[in-house]
Amino acid sequence: MATHTEQLTRPAVRLRGLTRSFDGRTVLDSLDLDLPAGQFTALLGHSGSGKSTLLRAVAGLDHEVTGSGRLTAPERVSVVFQDSRLLPWQRVLDNVLLGLDGKEADRKGREALAEVGLKGREGAWPSELSGGEAQRAALARSLVREPELLLADEPFGALDALTRIRMHVLLRELWERHRPSVLLVTHDVDEAIVLADRVLVLDHGRIGLDLTIDRPHPRSYRDPLLGEYRERLLAALGVTEDHQ
Ligand SMILES: Nc1ncnc2c1ncn2[C@@H]1O[C@H](COP(=O)(O)OP(=O)(O)OP(=O)(O)O)[C@@H](O)[C@H]1O
Questions:
Q1: Do 181 and 150 meet the contact criterion of CB atoms below 8 Å apart?
Q2: What is the pLDDT of residues 32-63, one digit of tens each?
Q3: E strand or H helix at 35, and its extent?
Q4: Ligand 1 pocket residue status of 186, Cβ below 6 Å
Q5: Phi, psi dihedral angles at 131 (to 5 degrees)
Q6: What is the pLDDT of residues 193-219, one digit of tens each?
Q7: Given the CA of residue 202, which atom of ligand 1 is nearest to it?
Q8: Which protein residue has the closest C-alpha to ligand 1 atom 2?
Q9: Domain with 53 in it: what CATH number?
Q10: For residue 112, is it within any domain?
Q11: Cβ–ligand 1 contact at 45 (below 6 Å)
Q12: For ligand 1, is residue 26 a contact (CB within 6 Å)?
């Protein structure tokens, strides 16, 4: 089995010169992106800086983006969004299994639901779940597909602060166990530094800062040594102390 270090040398994503404009306005400007296999990366940027556009490009969902390079095969990519996108007319387990069938899939689906803390809720309807539970189900739906690359677009953005912290712990645990490459889009600097081993800042269509967060996990928001990373990220985002 490959060690973590060996895994990191194999890129899941290596993109060069990604360019995307909308109505003559350049959002991605010849951007280069490397995501080593098995790395947990967060992507920060101001609202409208192009984070979702980049994520869609990496997911292979944008057919108008130009550039070259290597993408993970689409069947090995899972995407989680801010809203769970569960189908309201399907029960939780059926939502998780969507498109998969057979006994083995059923077993894996139940296992994934147990992993995210939803054991016993397999037969519930999405409308019976809280926001946090729905996001857990969305994570289970991703997990069951054993993704090489997990793309998450502000997956906790709509959750209350306490639920968000519990989801951070869960996501990191799932990552430790399965080791997909993760690209987490967020506007929350603390979320990025607590969860990710590397944080990218999108700025004027390019990666403005590429910061490795060299602190052990689990991390605490209160860790004073994370403060230095926070300062650097806020500075890259153009946020000064006066704005805080
Ligand atoms: N389909 C589209 N048509 C036209 N403009 C678009 C489209 N998708 C994105 N844009 C524009 O591209 C820019 C970047 O959008 P994007 O959603 O990628 O930003 P973002 O960084 O994810 O923002 P936020 O943090 O607010 O979600 C925005 O100005 C947006 O209006």
A1: yes
A2: 999 999 999 999 999 999 999 999 999 988 99
A3: strand 25-36
A4: no
A5: -60, -45
A6: 999 999 999 999 999 999 999 999 889
A7: 21
A8: 22
A9: 3.40.50.300
A10: no
A11: yes
A12: no
Mean pLDDT value of segment 17-28: 96
Among protein residues, the one with the nearest Cα to ligand 1's atom 18 is 50
Q: Which of 206, 170, 211 is nearest to 189 (CA)?
A: 211
Q: In whole angstroms, what is the distance from residue 48 CA to residue 199 CA?
A: 18
Q: How many residues does the chain have?
A: 244
Domain contains 233 = yes
Residue nearest to atom 13 of ligand 1 (CA): 48
Q: Give the domain range for residue 40.
A: 4-85+149-243
**Is the ipTM above a cut-off of 0.95?**
yes
Q: Is 27 in the pocket of ligand 1 (CB under 6 A)?
A: yes
- pLDDT tens digits, 2-15: 444 444 456 789 99
Instruction: Decide if 186 is inside a domain.
Output: yes
State the chain's maximal CA–CA distance in angstroms. Answer: 58
Asked if the structure places residue 115 within a domain, the reply is no
Rounded to the nearest angstrom, the distance between the alpha carbon of 27 and the centre of ligand 1 is: 8
Confidence at residue 7, expressed as pLDDT on a 0 to 100 scale: 47
From 75, 186, 90, 188, select the one nearest 137 (Cα to Cα).
Answer: 90
Nearest in space to 181 (alpha carbons), one of 27, 16, 70, 19? 70
Task: Compute, in angstroms, the gap from residue 52 CA to the centroid of ligand 1.
Answer: 7
